[in-house]
């Protein structure tokens, strides 16, 4: 499968993508735990059906030492016993934020409060930006049918 657009060949995309990449780097440097970052990025990408991002975040997390069991259970995190309460709160916020249009009022106060019990303001800021950022990146990849499967851990870092 070939992509509809080659972001690397487009001067317009080149100008924009450098800011997208810098946002990704800033999120990696945020106070949000890196494990949480990868789990949330993976879950948002699963919900949105972005194969490129699922490929990337699964491989990066595994490369960083994440277990196959936890990676395989991200899609069913509610029934899985392998996630901490903080990770569960982040995954719940990720789902609510990603599916905000499906629920009147978007992310409810209970979901927010559960996340706020585990993360400080800077971490919550990073979590909200990460969820939003992943939605944007997922759409860039989905709309242009970017092929998945060839990502190497750390390739874009």
Automatic annotation (TrEMBL):
InterPro entries: AhpD-like (IPR029032), AhpD_core (IPR004675), CMD-like (IPR003779). Residues 23-96 form the Carboxymuconolactone decarboxylase-like domain. GO terms for molecular function: peroxiredoxin activity. It comes from the Bacteria. PANTHER family: 4-CARBOXYMUCONOLACTONE DECARBOXYLASE FAMILY PROTEIN (AFU_ORTHOLOGUE AFUA_6G11590), BLL7811 PROTEIN. This is Carboxymuconolactone decarboxylase family protein.
């Amino acid at each position: 499968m070939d992509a509809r657009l080659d972001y690397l060949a487009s001067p317009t995309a080149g100008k924009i993508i450098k800011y997208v990449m810098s946002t990704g780097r800033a999120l990696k440097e945020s106070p949000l735990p890196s494990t949480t970052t990868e789990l949330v990025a993976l879950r948002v990408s699963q919900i949105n059906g972005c194969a490129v991002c699922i490929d990337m975040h699964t491989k990066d997390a595994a490369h960083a030492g994440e277990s196959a069991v936890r990676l395989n259970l991200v899609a069913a995190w509610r029934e899985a016993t392998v996630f901490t309460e903080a990770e569960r709160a982040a995954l719940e916020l990720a789902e609510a934020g990603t599916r905000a249009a499906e629920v009147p009022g978007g992310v409810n106060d209970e979901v927010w409060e559960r996340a706020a019990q585990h993360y400080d303001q800077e971490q919550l800021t990073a979590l909200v930006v990460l969820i939003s950022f992943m939605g944007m990146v997922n759409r860039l990849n989905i709309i242009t049918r970017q092929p998945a499967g060839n990502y190497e851990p750390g390739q874009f870092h």
